[in-house]
Design a protein that fits this description.
The complex is a heterodimer of chains A (about 300) and B (about 400).
Chain A: H1 7-35, H2 42-59, H3 64-92, H4 97-119, E1 133-136, E2 139-142, H5 143-165, H6 167-177, H7 179-184, H8 189-214, H9 221-236, H10 241-265, H11 273-286, H12 290-296
Antiparallel strand pairs in A: 1-2
Helix pairs in contact in A: 1-5, 1-8, 1-9, 1-10, 2-3, 2-4, 2-8, 2-9, 3-4, 3-8, 5-6, 6-8, 9-10, 9-11, 10-11, 10-12
Chain B: H1 3-28, E1 50-57, H2 64-83, E2 91-98, H3 103-116, E3 121-123, H4 128-141, E4 144-147, E5 163-165, H5 170-183, E6 189-194, H6 197-209, E7 214-220, H7 228-237, E8 241-245, H8 248-261, E9 267-270, H9 283-291, E10 295-299, H10 304-317, H11 325-341, H12 347-357, E11 362-363, E12 366-367, E13 381-388, E14 393-402, E15 406-409
Parallel strand pairs in B: 1-2, 1-3, 3-4, 4-5, 6-7, 6-8, 8-9, 9-10
Antiparallel strand pairs in B: 10-13, 11-12, 13-14, 14-15
Classes of the chains: A mainly alpha (about 300), B alpha/beta (about 400).
Chain lengths: ~300, ~400
């Protein structure tokens, strides 16, 4: 490069990317650790969240905050509905992890085309919501970017507190660890699983809103983040809360710095997507338990699942 | 980690891999198959009762908004002949297919037009990548295609074949842009182009003719929708101007993020890919384009014959024609005239007829004589600038460029 790159800004951009992955990955890793299958329809919860905020702010003229709250509620309920109507009946009929995974792809396609039917396939933007941009020393920031980072940090702290300090958190950890034992100890695991699905989908919706506000609203919005989200939870160690958070920022950094390399090589910057795959492949070959296998396994160290045993 | 879990993770990885790159690979694939049956020259197909004109445009995808409007141009041409009772007493039928801004889909739709509908002349496809993707197939099948908007220089290199276009090559538009850059006295520029034949054509041109000026060149993917770090590189490079070549949907995201990054202290130049009113539907994009006083070039849409066409367009559809609908109108007129005057509805004969009618056809976009490569022999470009008016935003024509005269700015 014949000029000096503003490294601080690239670091900041990596923080934004990482925070988005945290928001999206939280729900994915939570539902995984309880129901033990990768939910591909998570991508559509992300998209749905963005579209509902759009409907609330641009069409119904609600404020942004109430728009986000309504969107998280609706997305959360859609998540629970998917679980109750598709995944639980399937699991009850002895569906394996592979059955559930493939059906989640089907649910995702259904939701995506439903969204496209309602709002159309063209690109949309939030027109009623404005985020001011200003210079902070050598950094350029907007209120949206700060919002993304702060939201991710605050949510991580809240979830940490819930998991460690509350009865609900204890029940969630117990259900994740050993559902049969949890049930035998008097935990209503059905309720716990539904709460987790609600939370997971609602957080995906929130992440979707942030991603859409940062870029655009399209029916494939969530599908585009799903790959890095999976890379993040695999790198973090599947089902590991803290490993996932560390992995999200690692991937954010790797992607943003790879852009500089790709530009200097004269290659389309789309190939940063490949970073996600490289991460998945290297992790699976060299450290299949991910970061959590090294350090962060305290709370979410799960017993190995057997085939066919998905959930109650 | 148990074996089964590892297997499942691998399965997840494979599904994601296929999903993310399947489409990408398909796009880059040229149709490789050769048709088993070639029409024999002696075979004379009977004259049909209805003359079918294929229309292959991007009615969805990144260029969907533009394609929908271009379709009106084709319909207008059909309407004019319909009001005369068709051509030579035969009705004209437009067979419309959607290429979805995707070269793989364009090939598929082209095959449907040719093999299912039996079409011998097609208006389209819209993009250069799509046109290059279908070129081999239409040449093998002797089907004439007239693209109203594929501008890449590479299409000229196909030579004397069944591929025609009513719009000039980007090598000329890039020359126009370069003259515009020189008139502004830039010494260092960055190129920010869409990673396909259209965008890379511009990048290559500047790197070839003014390598010392190009400080940074970036190729972006229209699907990604996040260009913050790329734009930051432009900001750090300290250039006088950024040359953006892309399409409307991804263009909006680039300009919105550039506004967020405060990348408004350098000049912004662009091409016809975004010189379309849909850009102004998003207020933030429009504000940014007006704030940086974005300028650029586009194939000419001015003059007496254009005004005449615009008037007819308003009467028929109640709206002003937009980007390339005039070039689509001309492509459709030429296709109808060629198919209607050819002795039979047959590819090679329509091709010869097309070369003949192009010698005297003077359309909405001017004189449409084709050169030996199927490119228009005459062309002019408009120089536009985004301005804010009392009622909204518009692309104001501030000058013209033609190979013979060079750049002429309206004082």
């Amino acid at each position: 490069m014949p000029f000096e790159t503003n490294l601080l800004q690239i670091l900041f951009n990596s923080l934004i990317s990482g925070s988005l992955y945290v928001l999206v990955g939280l729900g994915l890793t939570m539902t995984y650790s309880l129901t033990k299958f990768p939910n591909f329809a998570h991508a559509e919860f992300i998209t749905l969240g963005a579209y509902i905020v759009y409907a609330m702010t641009d069409i119904l003229n609600l404020g942004l905050i109430s728009g986000i709250i309504v969107s998280m509620l609706i997305t959360g309920f859609v998540g629970v509905a998917c679980f109750l109507m598709v995944f639980r009946p399937l699991a009850n009929r002895k569906g394996t992890m592979v059955h559930l995974m493939i059906s989640s792809i089907g649910v995702g396609i259904f939701l995506r085309y439903a969204i496209q039917q309602i709002w159309g396939g063209q690109e949309l933007h939030f027109s009623k919501v404005h985020f001011a941009g200003y210079n902070l020393g050598p950094l350029r920031v907007t209120s949206l970017w700060i919002g993304i980072i702060l939201t991710a940090v605050i949510l991580v702290i809240i979830l940490h507190l819930i998991l460690t300090q509350t009865k609900l958190g204890k029940a969630m950890r117990a259900t994740s660890n050993n559902p049969s034992l949890a049930q035998a100890s008097g935990i209503d695991i059905d309720k716990i699983i539904m709460i987790v699905w609600f939370l997971g989908a609602a957080l995906a919706g929130l992440g979707g809103f942030f991603k859409a506000a940062d870029t655009r609203i399209v029916p494939v919005l969530g599908w585009g983040i799903l790959l890095p989200a999976f890379a993040v939870i695999i790198l973090g160690g599947i089902g590991s809360f803290y490993g996932m958070i560390a992995a999200a920022y690692i991937l954010g950094l790797a992607e943003n710095f790879s852009i500089i390399g790709l530009i200097s090589l004269g290659i389309s910057t789309d190939y940063r997507t490949a970073i996600g795959f490289v991460v998945i492949i290297i992790t699976l070959i060299f450290a299949p338990t991910g970061l959590s296998g090294i350090n962060f396994s305290k709370w979410f160290k799960r017993r190995r699942p057997h085939e066919g045993e998905v959930m109650e | 980690m148990s074996k089964i879990k590892k297997k499942i993770l691998m399965l997840v990885a494979v599904i994601l891999l296929v999903a993310a790159f399947g489409a990408g690979c398909a796009e880059k694939q040229a149709p490789s198959e050769t048709p088993s049956e070639k029409p024999t020259p002696s075979e004379q197909p009977p004259q049909p009762e209805v003359i079918k004109i294929g229309v292959l445009l991007d009615l969805s995808g990144d260029l969907g908004a533009i394609g929908q409007k271009m379709k009106l141009g084709a319909e207008l041409a059909q309407k004019e002949f319909d009001s005369l009772g068709g051509i030579g007493g035969k009705k004209i039928e437009l067979v419309v297919e959607d290429a979805a801004t995707d070269p793989a889909k364009a090939v598929e739709a082209m095959k449907k037009l040719v093999e299912v509908e039996g079409v011998k002349v097609v208006v389209g496809p819209m993009t250069s990548s799509e046109t290059l993707a279908v070129a081999k197939y239409v040449n093998d099948r002797n089907v004439v295609i007239i693209s109203p908007s594929a501008t890449a220089g590479k299409i000229t290199e196909l030579g004397d074949d069944y591929v025609f276009r009513t719009v000039g090559s980007d090598d000329l538009q890039a020359a126009a842009l370069l003259d515009l850059m020189k008139s502004r006295g830039y010494s260092k520029i960055a190129t920010f182009v869409i990673a396909n034949d259209y965008g890379i054509g511009f990048e290559d041109y500047f790197k070839k003719y003014v390598p010392e000026m190009v400080a940074l060149s970036i190729r972006y993917d229209p699907q990604k929708g996040d260009y913050r770090t790329e734009l930051q590189q432009v900001k750090d490079a300290g250039v006088d101007a950024i040359i953006f070549v892309g399409y409307v949907d991804s263009g909006k995201v680039v300009f919105r993020q550039a506004a967020d990054l405060g990348l408004d202290e350098i000049d912004w130049l662009s091409s016809e890919g975004i010189a379309e009113n849909v850009m102004f539907e998003d207020a933030k994009t429009a504000d940014f384009m007006a704030k940086v006083e974005m300028i650029g070039t586009k194939p000419s849409s001015t003059g007496f014959t254009y005004e005449k066409f615009a008037e007819k367009h308003r009467q028929a559809f109640g709206s002003d024609p937009d980007l390339f609908s005039d070039y689509t109108y001309d492509a459709t007129m030429l296709a109808i005239l060629a198919a209607g005057t050819a002795p039979s509805y047959d590819g090679p004969q329509i091709r010869e007829a097309l070369k003949k009618v192009s010698e005297w056809y003077n359309g909405a976009t001017g004189y449409k004589l084709f050169d030996e490569n199927g490119d228009p022999a005459f062309y002019t470009y408009n120089v536009w600038k985004v301005v804010k008016t009392d009622t909204g935003f518009k692309y104001e024509i501030i000058g013209h460029w033609a190979p013979a005269t060079g750049l002429e700015l309206i004082p």
